């Protein structure tokens, strides 16, 4: 056990040093991939981590996410990287967790509690005959008072400006004192670099040192995939049951209670089906065939899309409510299921209407991130309806829905990173510039990876002619657009020339290749 603790702490220390080397004054790119490889190797070498198929899948998914950061270097790829990292760490140190949501929370909990983890591991470390446990026993008596004093000091500083001034002066003097000592012995080091190393050490420790409390894992183990009929005995009433019984009298104990809920459900689904049938009929006759934009076309589509998306989410919530418990086992529930299935089909038709609306929006106003987001959200709604159908048909629990949808959403998130969305948006809009009313300010504000294509197509970037646009408020809007593009190209060149190999990524390389910067670096 002592040797294991020594190795865990050594790997965390080396990880902190590697973090400081890779990320100090660097952009997130190739360095993320190198850091991930280190974490993956240490985790899989750890004998306490069981190498299950699930862990290998999420480890591979995180490695793919890190590679996609180097290939695409987008905000989406970086967000996906962090999510995949937390999921991998959550599953690595909590082997019995089954959902991505619980794994995500478990990983965050592990990182937040890193001081307690570190103290527990350090108390087991020994150097020869010298043991650190007595030292950390003493630290326990100091740690909590320091935290309490810090919290109240912050409160007092917020309450009194004079107290805040003296506290700031004292902290500044303490910081200068340690800064002078550091510069006296190590003239090349700085407080900022040490803080950066400490952050890397804490982060790496949180990712590698498993949290000893498995309460979250044990709580999730109680959740089941399959619904079971609950027969409530007289001696097993919960406090909430007793409270409701106080206000409802004998309604809960009557045999007609389930039948009443069934009748209410049938009436509700019949009414909802008729209501949605009316809306779908209107959409099919006015939107699906022969639609011609008129009036406030953009506002009409935008408002209608938001309302429909919200209604689809509410529809799934209503179905989950009625099929949450014993109504699934009611002998006359076939009619209710049929009505629910009909409403699911109608909601699927509603999703088609959302897709058509978004398609018209893209046809007349071009691609944007928000319009692509509507397409993605419609896809998620289709998946959600499909899993809700499985939940009703197979009598599954809501936990099953979370488990299934979490895995599917993560897989889709990883898949969406394969596409370079900024370049797709610019290419589509500029290739359809004659038919699409594009927003040139939006296009020229996208990431630097689009600069080569924008520079090639300067002649296609025209300000709109409408009087209510931003370009109408300035003189010579075409010149302003070109100046903005030139400034962005200049900023990229300046940044790229200062970057090191740790910040290398494929989009920057391709953009630099277009502007001839790679040749200049080779000559240097």
From TrEMBL:
The chain crosses the membrane at residues 7-26, 32-50, 62-91, 97-118, 138-159, 194-212, 262-291, 303-323, 335-356, 372-392, 404-424. It comes from the Bacteria. InterPro entries: DUF4153. Keywords: Membrane, Transmembrane, Transmembrane helix. This is Uncharacterized protein. It comes from Pedobacter miscanthi.
């Amino acid at each position: 056990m002592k040797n294991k603790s020594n190795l865990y702490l050594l790997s965390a220390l080396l990880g902190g040093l590697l973090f400081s080397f890779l990320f100090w004054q660097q952009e997130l790119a190739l360095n993320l991939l190198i850091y991930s490889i280190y974490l993956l190797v240490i985790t899989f070498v750890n004998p306490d981590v069981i190498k299950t198929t699930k862990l290998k899948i999420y480890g591979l998914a995180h490695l793919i996410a890190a590679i996609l950061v180097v290939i695409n270097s987008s905000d989406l790829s970086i967000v996906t990287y962090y999510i995949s990292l937390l999921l991998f760490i959550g599953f690595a140190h909590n082997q019995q967790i089954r959902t991505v949501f619980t794994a995500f929370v478990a990983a965050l909990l592990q990182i937040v509690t890193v001081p307690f983890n570190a103290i527990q591991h350090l108390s087991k470390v020994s150097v020869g005959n010298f043991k650190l446990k007595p030292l950390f026993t003493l630290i326990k008596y100091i740690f909590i008072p320091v935290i309490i004093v810090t919290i109240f000091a912050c409160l007092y500083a917020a309450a009194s400006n004079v107290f805040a001034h003296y506290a700031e002066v004292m902290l500044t003097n303490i910081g200068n004192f340690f800064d002078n000592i550091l510069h006296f012995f190590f003239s090349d080091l700085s407080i900022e670099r040490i803080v950066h190393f400490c952050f890397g050490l804490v982060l790496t420790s949180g990712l590698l040192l498993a949290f000893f409390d498995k309460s979250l894992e044990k709580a999730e183990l109680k959740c089941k995939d399959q619904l079971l009929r609950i027969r409530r005995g007289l001696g097993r009433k919960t406090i909430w049951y007793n409270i409701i019984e106080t206000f409802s009298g004998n309604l809960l104990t009557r045999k007609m209670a389930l039948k009443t809920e069934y009748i209410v459900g049938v009436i509700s689904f019949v009414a909802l089906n008729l209501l949605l049938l009316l809306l779908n009929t209107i959409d099919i006759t006015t939107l699906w065939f022969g639609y011609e934009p008129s009036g406030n076309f953009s506002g009409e589509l935008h408002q209608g899309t938001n309302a429909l998306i919200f209604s689809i989410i509410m529809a799934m919530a209503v179905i989950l409510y009625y099929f949450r418990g014993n109504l699934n086992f009611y002998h006359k529930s076939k009619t209710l299921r049929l009505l629910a299935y009909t409403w699911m089909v109608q909601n699927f038709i509603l999703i088609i209407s959302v897709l058509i609306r978004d398609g018209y929006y893209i046809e007349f106003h071009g691609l944007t991130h928000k319009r692509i987001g509507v397409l993605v959200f419609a896809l998620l709604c289709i998946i959600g309806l499909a899993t809700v159908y499985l939940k009703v048909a197979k009598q599954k629990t809501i936990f099953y829905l979370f488990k299934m949808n979490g895995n599917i959403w993560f897989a889709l998130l990883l898949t969406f990173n394969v596409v370079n969305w900024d370049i797709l948006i610019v290419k589509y809009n500029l290739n359809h510039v004659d038919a699409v009313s594009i927003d040139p300010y939006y296009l020229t504000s996208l990431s630097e990876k689009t600069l080569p294509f924008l520079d090639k197509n300067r002649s296609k970037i025209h300000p709109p002619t409408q009087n209510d646009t931003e370009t109408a408020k300035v003189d010579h809007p075409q010149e302003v657009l070109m100046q903005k593009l030139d400034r962005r190209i200049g900023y990229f060149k300046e940044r790229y020339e200062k970057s090191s190999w740790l910040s290398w990524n494929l989009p920057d390389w391709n953009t630099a290749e277009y502007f001839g910067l790679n040749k200049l670096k080779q000559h240097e």
